[in-house]
Write a structure and sequence with these properties.
The complex is a heterodimer of chains A (about 290) and B (about 375). Chain A is built from 15 helices and no strands. Chain A is mainly alpha-helical and about 290 residues long. In chain A, helix 9 crosses helix 12 (about 190-220) and helix 11 packs antiparallel against helix 12. The two termini of chain A are about 30 Å apart. Chain B is an alpha+beta fold and about 375 residues long. Chain B has two domains: about 5-225, 3-Layer(aba) Sandwich (Rossmann fold), CATH 3.40.50.300; about 240-375, Nucleic acid-binding proteins (OB fold (Dihydrolipoamide Acetyltransferase, E2P), Beta Barrel). In chain B, helix 2 (about 90-100) packs across helix 3 (about 110-125) and helix 2 runs parallel beside helix 4 (about 140-150). The radius of gyration of chain B is 25 Å and the shape is elongated. Chain B starts with a strand and ends with a strand. The chains are: A mainly alpha (about 290), B alpha+beta (about 375).
Amino acid sequence: MASNRARSTRSLQHRRVGDSPAIKWLLIGIAIAVTTGLLIMPLVVIFTEALSSGWSTFADNLLDQYTLHAIGLTLFVAALTVPLNLVFGVALAWLVTRFRFPGRKLLITLIDIPFAVSPVVAGLLYLLLYGRNGWIGNWLADYDIQLMFSWPGIVMVTVFVTCPFVARELIPLMQQQGSEEEEAGVVLGASGWRIFRTITLPNIKWALIYGVVLTNARAVGEFGAVSVVAGNIRGQTNTLPLHVELLYQDYNVVGAFTSASLLAGIAVFTLAAKGFVEWRQARTVIRLQAQETV
Amino acid sequence: MSITVDGIKKRFGKFQALNNVSLDIPEGKLTALLGPSGSGKTTLLRIIAGLESADSGQISFSGRDVTGLHVRDRNIGFVFQHYALFRHMTVAQNIAFGLDSLPRKQRPAKAGIQKRVSELLEMIQLPHLAQRYPAQLSGGQKQRVALARSIATQPKILLLDEPFGALDAKVRKDLRRWLRNLHDEFHFTSIFVTHDQEEALELSDQVVVMSQGRVEQVNEPIELYARPESRFVFDFLGQVNVISGQVKQGSLNQGNAWVTVPGVQHKGDAQLYLRPHEVRLATAPVAHANLPLRIEAVSLIGSEVRVELRPEGWQSEGSNNIWEVGISHAEFNSQRPTRGDLRYAVPEVGHLFTGNDAQPATVNWAEAELAPRVRLIS
C-alpha cells in the first residue's frame, strides 16, 4: 500500500510539466554553449592575448606611465563614488521605507532612472548642463571652475550611473524587516545614532556590502558616460576602460589586452566577492534554521 | 503611576482612528483595551507610549503632562505584537539593550548589567537560552524575552500590543497566567490590547471596550459581562441570542414566536438579548415563552454541551440565524438531544433593548414569577 503510493507519487513527479529528460539536457546544452562562447572564451582570450608576448611585455605594458595613471584615476574615481553612493543609498532607503510622504512611490521609481537611461545619454546631459557652454557650467566658468573634461566630471557621471545599486539592494530588505525593531530601540531609550549603529546597520549589513560590491564594479568599468565627459586626455582624464580603447586604436593590441585583463580581473574578483556574500547570507539563514529545529 | 487620557483625537488621512477618547487608567491595575480590528485600540496604546502623536488631546502620567515628551524619555515598557526582538543580538544582549542605552550617569556598571540580565533570565525561566538568537526561539520563548527586555529598566508602566495574538492556545493560557503573576509581583500599571474578549475578561482588572475610535464602556470584567450598556458590547462579549419583534400587551412577538416581557412599558420595536447560559431548552412551550427551534448541531467539547439551533417559523437577529444554548453534560445525558429535534427555548434572564435606548432593561422571568418587575440598569 505504502510502496504503491510512493510509486504513484514518483510517476506523478515524472509527469510534471517541462520535466522530460530530453528538454532538460537540451536546455543544459544550450546554457553551456552560450556561456562558453559568450563568456568563458572571451575571458580566456583576454588573458592569453595579454600574455601573448610574454610576461616581461605584460609587465612593461602594465608599468607604462599612462597605464599607471589610468589605473590611479580609475581607483580614485571609485574611491570617491563608492562612499558617496553608500551614504546616499542608505539615506534614500531609510527615507522611503521609514517615512510616508506624498511622492514616495514616484521617488522609488525615479531611483531607477540611471538603469533605464543609456549611459551615453547621461553623459551628454551632464555635458549640456555642466559643460563650458551649459547652463550651470557657463556660470561656474565665471568662477574658474571646470567640471567637464576633468576628474570631477568623471566622478559626477559615475555617481549618477551607479547610484541605484545600494538603494535597490536595501529598499526591499528594509521594507520586509519593517521598523518595529527600531521602534523597540527608541522605547528602550536608545538615541537615533545608537539605533542606527546597533540595530539598523547589522540588519542590513550583507545587503549593503553586496550593493557596495556592485557599485564598485560598475564605477571601475563604466565606459559610456565617462567617455562623453572625460575628453580622453591621455595622462589626465583617461580611465582604465577608456585607456583600453585608446590603446586599441593605437594598434597596441597587447597593451589594450593588458589593461583589459586588469578590468577582467576586477570583474572576476567582484563575482567572487558577490558569491561569498550570498553564501554568507544563505549560511546564516540555514544555520539559524538548523538550530531552530534542534 | 496612573495614566490619564484626555480628549485624544487621531486621524489617518480620511480615517478617524480615535474620536475624542478620554480614560482613567488606575495605578497598579491591569487594563485591557478590547475591540475589533480598526477600533483604534492599538493606535491609543501607541499614543500613550509616544510612538504616535495625537492630533489633539493630552496624556498624563500621575498628573504630569507627558504629551510632548519623547517616547525615549517616558520610561515605559512596551511589548510589540510580533515581539520586535533584535534579530542579530543574543537573548542576553536583547535584554541588556535598555540598560546599555541608559545615559552614562544612570547606567549600571558592566557587572551590574550582567547581574540584572541573569536575574531576568531566571525570572522568565530561560537562563539556558541566554546565548541563543531570536530566530532559534519558539513563539512563547520570544514573548517572554520581549517581556524581560521591556521591564529590564524597571519602568512603572507596561504596555502590551496583542501580547498573545501569535501564540497557540496552550502556550497562550500558560503565558496569561504568567503575565498575571508578573503583574501582581511588580505592580506595574499595565495596559494590553486584545481583540479576544475571553483574554480581556480573564486577565484584566478593568476592561475598556472600544469601537470605531470611541470608548463604548469601561468596567470590571464581571460587571461588564453582566451589564453590557450597549448592543455593541453585548455582541462583542461572547455569543448572544437575539430575537427582535414588536412589544404589545406585555409580550414581544415575532410571527408565531413570543416571549412575555413582564413590567415593560414600552410599545413597538424591541430586541431581546440572551446569553447561551440564560436559556434552557424544553420539549414543550412554557407559560412565558414560545420559541420553537430545531437542533442543528451538538458539540460536546468543553465543560458544557453546546447546542446550535435554528429558529422554526421565526427569524433570529444576527448574521447566521443560529441560536446557541449551553446545557450541562447531565442534562445532555438524560435528554439526548440530537440533530433535527424540535426544542423550545425557555429564557431565564434577558436584556431588552428598546428603540434607540442605549441601556437595556433586564428581564428576569424567574423572579417575575414571584413578583413581576423590571430592573433598569443604571
